[in-house]
Description:
single chain; 4 helices; elongated; mainly alpha
Amino acid sequence: MSSGVGIPWIISSAVKGSKKNAQAKLREVLSAVDNGSHVDTSKETVEQFAVRWMETYVATNCTIRTEIGYQGNIDRYIVPAGGGSGSAVYYQSWQQPV
């Protein structure tokens, strides 16, 4: 499972009951991801997503120069444009491979 830009999707869910219940939930989630119907229900804002992305993906996969450029774009365009409002789910979904 991948978002198409090198960032793996992490989906977690707590399941009460038996191992069989957990395996059924896993099949359900994997099927939803495969057919594109999975929607993350988190309330993470675009700004929060950008901070998390900078700390995880960019910090380990990009050069310092690229990291500085990305941070500049976040500070210049996302934060002043209201990056604290709205859901990051929409912005992640456009990165999905077609």
